């Protein structure tokens, strides 16, 4: 069971917060601090200060560390695709830069970071490749290279493909294509990371179950890497009936600015219980579940898709007290 944490939590070293992290979870992901823009801001400059602190905290508490993430089109550094003259680099240079980036970082944390989100979000919603600069310059070869370089730098580390909406059939099939392609070329991939930024209604338990079975059938581990459940309206949600009820008194899209009504607390707890019952049923296929944040006050969902909302996505409230959802999850494990 993992949690994503950020630099302010580590740097403030609030005892209550650190105790909660280390007592409730046994895996850590950096919510931001291991992304390209932070670790490798300039071509000849790496900055490991914050990442080192997270790795240290994990080592002191015997926690598994997930490296998030080596190759992603977002939170990148501006130099990555440009030559000194300002032209766009070619495929050979992209390969050089990926090799340097990945070998340096994975090599530095060899034996300490035990699993890497090697490539993040390389798929479009229809399951084709996302037309990122990585893809435009390197084709699908950038994914193969990234996994190869990561494996060379730490042969023991687990290597994952990580993405959102991986329960949706088209994107799920795209991820399965990536796994099969890598395996057919003899390139190591150990797991698919399903991010799991979900809502009270979607995706359905049946859809999640189908995806777990299909990923596991390709011979990789399945992990839920960024779990949170929004209770607020989402522009992308298909089933709108329930949303309009929750929306009734809230033209600001902030229906519960002060606290979450008990009825919605219960809905959230039931949703988490359903999800964890399914996870328990497939515990032979699922190697990790990581929550995307420690408590509601820290959830990125407070700022997405609209800045400044008050969301209630996680197991602990803003005072770090366990919610009904926490008790529901614990109950599924005890059952
Ligand atoms: O570092 C700056 C800081 O200097 C500045 O004062 C502050 C003002 O807004 O912004 C800070 O940067 C923020 C950064 O997080 C670090 O805190 C960015 O604005 C903010 O957009 C960024 O959001 C992160 C987001 O990735 C960026 O895409 C979220 O915290 C993080 O939860 C989110 O995580 C991603 C996963 O990595 C991949 N999967 C989706 C997931 C949710 O988007």
UniProtKB/TrEMBL annotation:
InterPro entries listed in its UniProt record: GH (IPR017853), GH10 (IPR044846), GH10_AS (IPR031158), GH10_dom (IPR001000)
EC class (word): hydrolase
Bilayer-crossing regions: none
Active site: 226 (nucleophile)
Pfam family, one: Glyco_hydro_10
Reaction equations catalysed: Endohydrolysis of (1->4)-beta-D-xylosidic linkages in xylans
Keywords in alphabetical order: Carbohydrate metabolism, Glycosidase, Hydrolase, Polysaccharide degradation
Record EC number: 3.2.1.8
Stretches assigned to the GH10 domain: 1-332
Family: Belongs to the glycosyl hydrolase 10 (cellulase F) family.
PANTHER family for this protein: ENDO-1,4-BETA-XYLANASE A, GLYCOSYL HYDROLASE
Protein name, per record: Beta-xylanase
């Amino acid at each position: 069971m993992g949690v994503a944490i950020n630099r302010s939590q580590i740097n403030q070293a609030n005892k209550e917060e650190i105790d909660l992290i280390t007592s409730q979870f046994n895996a850590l992901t950096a919510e931001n601090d291991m992304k390209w823009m932070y670790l490798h801001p300039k071509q000849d400059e790496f900055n490991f200060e914050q990442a080192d602190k997270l790795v240290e905290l994990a080592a002191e508490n015997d926690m598994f560390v997930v490296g998030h993430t080596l190759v992603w089109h977002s939170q990148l550094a501006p130099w990555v695709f440009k030559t000194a003259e300002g032209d766009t680099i070619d495929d050979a240079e992209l390969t050089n830069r990926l090799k340097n980036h990945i070998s340096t970082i994975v090599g530095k944390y060899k034996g300490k970071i035990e699993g890497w989100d090697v490539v993040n979000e390389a798929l479009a919603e229809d399951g084709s490749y996302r037309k990122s600069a990585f893809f435009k310059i390197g084709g699908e070869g950038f994914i193969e290279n990234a996994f190869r370089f990561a494996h060379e730098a730490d042969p023991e580390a687990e290597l994952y493909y990580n993405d959102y909406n991986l329960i949706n059939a088209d994107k799920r099939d795209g991820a399965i294509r990536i796994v099969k392609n890598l395996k057919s070329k003899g390139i190591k991939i150990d797991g698919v990371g399903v991010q799991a930024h979900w809502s009270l209604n979607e995706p359905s338990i049946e859809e999640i179950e189908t995806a777990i079975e299909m990923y596991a059938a390709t011979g990789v581990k399945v992990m839920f890497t960024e779990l949170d459940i929004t209770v607020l309206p989402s522009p992308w949600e298909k089933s709108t009936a329930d949303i309009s009820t929750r929306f009734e008194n809230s033209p600001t899209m902030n229906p519960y600015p002060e606290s979450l009504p008990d009825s919605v607390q219960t809905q959230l707890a039931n949703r988490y219980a359903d999800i964890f019952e399914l996870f328990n049923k497939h515990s032979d296929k699922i190697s990790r579940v990581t929550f995307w944040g420690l408590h509601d006050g820290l959830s990125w969902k407070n700022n997405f898709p609209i800045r400044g909302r008050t969301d209630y996505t996680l197991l602990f409230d803003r005072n770090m007290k366990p919610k009904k959802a926490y008790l529901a999850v614990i109950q599924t494990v005890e059952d």
